[in-house]
C-alpha cells in the first residue's frame, strides 16, 4: 500500500500549492489586482493581419502589404457619441449613418479597438490629431494596407480585401477567423485566403484614464502568410487590359498546352483602393464587381459552330465537299430563318461555311444531326459546366435539354444555351491542342515565408476527347480561313498565323431590340499553338473583338514589330 | 445532540460517491448560473444546456446504477477500437486544425473526452491478467495509450494528451511497474523529446512555446492568463458576491464558462469560497482514493486508480493554469465547467466507481 499512499501525497502536495498560490493572488496581491479590475485598463491592440505577396510568373509583384494609418476607436472610451459623429463627419467627410451604426453597435469586448476608417491620408491624420481633445476614445493607429501595383487592371483576377461579414464569420469562425478581420472578398485573395493570411500581430498594454499607453505586458510581431506565384504574366495582363481599353467586356488568355491562365481582364473595372465609392452607388447595371470571364453567361453564338462542325463530320452527316445553297433565308414550318448575310452565300461547302459563318449551312446540318446529338457533343466538350478554374463564383452556363432546344437555333449557338467566356476559351484551347481539356488554373505555387514550397499545382487534364483527325484538320483549316478571308479578318496580322472564330450572341427574346454581344476566340501560332485567347464585348461586334485579339497577339508575339511601327508613325508625324 | 452530529458525520463519510459528485454538480450549476446572467453576450444559454446534460446524466445513473463493472472487462476492447475510429474521423475531418468535435444532428460530442475512460478500462483489463514486469506487457500497454495519444496530440489537444500520459503512469505504477522499468521510461522520454521536436512542424513548435510561455501570444493565451489572474486576484478574501463579479460579466475572459470557470468562483466567493471548494473537491478525490485503496479486485483497483488520476489531474491542471502555475491547456474542471461530453464521461466514471465500491465490500 506504499505506492497508493505516495499517489495520494503527491496530489495533496499540489493541492497545498494551489491554496498557497490562491492565497498569494487573492490576499497578498489583492490591492494590485483589484485596482486593475476596477479600472479595466488592460487593452489588446491588434496591428493587423499581414498577408503574403502575390507574384506573377516572372516574379513581378501583383499584391503586397504596406504600412498604413487607420482610424480606430475603443467603444468603452467613447464619451459623447453624438458630438463625435458630428466632428468626424465634418473633418473626414464620412457618412453619418455609417458612423452611428459603427459607434453605437454592441461589441463582444468593449475594450478592443475597432477600425473606423482605413488608409488615412496625412491630411486626415492631422485633422484627427488637431481634434483629438474632442474625440475621446478615437485614435489613429498603425495598420496594414494592401497595395496592388496594377490597380484596376488586375482587380477581377486578384479580388480585393474587406472586413469579414456576418455570414462569412458564421462559416469561418471554426477556422479561427474573428470579428473585424480583413479577408479576401473575391478572386485569388478570396480563393486562397487561408494561405495568404498570416498571423496577426499585436500588443497588450495597460492604459491610463485618457487611453494613453503606460505599460506593455506583451508584444507579438505579426507573421506574414504564404506567398503565391501565379501563372499570370503581368506583361500580357497589361497588354490585354490596354487593348480592351474602356470597352465593356472581358479578355482571357490561356496556354493551350497546359491550361495556365496568362491574363484575365474584365470591364468595367474598379479601383481596389477606392472601394467605398464603388460599393455605395455606382453599382447598378454597370456592375463592376462582375468578373465576366467566369460569371458572365451568354449564348455562345457562332462560336458554337465549332461543335456543330465536329459533330457533323464525325457522324458522317456531311462530308468535306458536300454543298448546300444559302439563299439568305430558309423556311422551317411556319417560321422563316435568316442568314446574317442578306442575299445569302450561294452554294457553300463546309470549308467556306465556317469562315463565312453561314447560318443556313449550319442550320441545315443541325436539322440533319438532330438536337440530342448536338447536345451530346456540347457536353463532350464540357460546355455548360464549370471549368474548375481556381477562382470563386464560377458560373455553370446552361445546356438545354433536347425538348427545350430547336436544331436550327442550337446549331448556331442561339436560344436557351449559354456558356461563360472561360468555357469558350477552354473549347478553342482543346481544338488547338487536339483534344485535351485542361483545367484552367491561376495559382502555380504557394511558398512559405521562409521560401519552402508548400504546394505546387501541376497542370491537370480533366478529360481527353478523341477528335477524328480528318475532321480536326478540316475544322482547323476553317478556323484559319476565318482570319484569312472570313468574318475575323480584322484579327489578321502579318508574320503570325492566327486561327479563330467569331460569335455574335443574340440576347434573350424579350431584349431583341438591344444590341448584340460580340465575341472572338482564337489561337496562335497555327502550326504550334502556344496561346489561346477569348475576347468578349458587351454590346460590341465580333469583328471588333477579333481586332482586339489580333492586336493582343501581335504585342505578345511580335513586340519588335509593334515598336518599329510606333517609331515610324512618330517619324511621319514629325515630318 | 452530540450523537446526532456524529451520525450525520458518519453518514456523510460513508455516503456514496454518486452523492458527492452531485454536490459538485450542484456547485457547478450555481457558478454557471452566475456566469450566464447579466452578461452582454451569452453563449446561447449554456446554463440551460448544462441542466439538460445533468438530466441526461441522471438518467444514465438510474439505468446503470446496479450494473456490475466486471462486465466491462471484455467489452472494453470493443469501446477501445470504436474510440480509435472516432478519433481518426475527427482528425481527418478537422484537417489538422483544432477541431475536436463530431456533430450528431443537434449536439456535438468530443471523442477525446470519452477516450480517457476507455483507455482506463482497456489498460486495466489488459494489466489485470498479466505481469507488468515482463517487458512485452509493458510495451503493449504503452501502445494501448500511445495510439490514442498520437491521434489526440495531432488534433492538437495537448491537454488531453497529457492526461493520457498521467493515466498511463498512474495505472502502471499501481500495477507494480519496477523501479528499473520506470527509470527506463524516464530515459526514453528524455532522449526522444528532441527527436519529436525536430519532426514537428513550425506551427506545432510555436504552439508548444506559447504553451510554455503564454506571453508569446499576448492576444490569445497571454491575454487569457493575465485576465484570469486579475479576475482571481480581485476577488480578495470574501469575494465580490454572488452574481456581482465584474471581470467575468464584462466578458474579459472568453472561456469563462468552460476552462476558466474557476475564475468566476474565485472572483465572486473570494479566498474563502476557494478554500471551501477545494476542500469539497479534495473530499471527493479522497473518496475515490478510499475506493481504490480498499478494492480487493485488481481490475477494479486499476480502474479506480485511473479514474482517480483522471479527476485529480483535471482538477489540479485546470486550477493550476487559471492561477498561472501551469501552462494553459484546454482542460475543463469536471462537474463544474460547461460541456456535455466531459460531464457525461465524469458521471459514467462515477457509476463505475460506485459499482467497484459495492463489490469490494462483498468480497
Describe the structure concisely for a colleague.
The complex is a heterodimer of chains A (575) and B (363). Chain A has 575 residues and is an alpha+beta fold.
Measured by DSSP, the beta-strand proportion of chain B falls in under 5%
- Percent strand of chain A: 15-25%
CATH architecture of the largest domain in chain A: 3-Layer(aba) Sandwich
When the domains of chain B are counted, the total is: 1
Assembly state here?
Answer: heterodimer
Estimated helix fraction of chain A: 25-40%
Strand order of the largest sheet of chain B: 1-2
Task: Sketch the major β-sheet of chain B.
Answer: 2 strands, antiparallel
Can you identify the CATH class of the largest domain in chain A?
Answer: Alpha Beta
- Residue-averaged pLDDT of chain A, rounded? 85
Count of separate DSSP helical elements of chain A: 21
Please provide a written account of the structure.
The complex is a heterodimer of chains A (575) and B (363). Chain A is α+β, with helices and mostly antiparallel strands. Chain A has 21 helices and 23 strands. In chain A, the strands form seven sheets. In chain A, strands 2, 3, 4, 5, 10, 18 and 19 form a seven-stranded mixed β-sheet that branches. Chain A has a five-stranded antiparallel β-sheet with strand order 12-11-23-22-21, sandwiched between helices. Chain A has a three-stranded antiparallel β-sheet with strand order 1-8-9, with no helix packed on it. In chain A, strand 22 and strand 23 (531-537) form a beta hairpin. The radius of gyration of chain A is 31 Å and the shape is elongated. Chain B has 363 residues and is an all-alpha fold. Chain B has one domain. Chain B has helices at residues 2-14, 17-36, 46-64, 72-94, 111-127, 135-153, 158-174, 179-199, 202-212, 221-233, 261-294, 298-322, 340-362; strands at 102-104, 107-109. The relative contact order of chain B is 0.15. Residues 38-43 of chain B have low confidence and may be disordered. Chains A and B meet through helix 1, helix 2, strand 1, strand 8 and strand 9 of A and helix 7, helix 10, helix 11 and helix 12 of B.
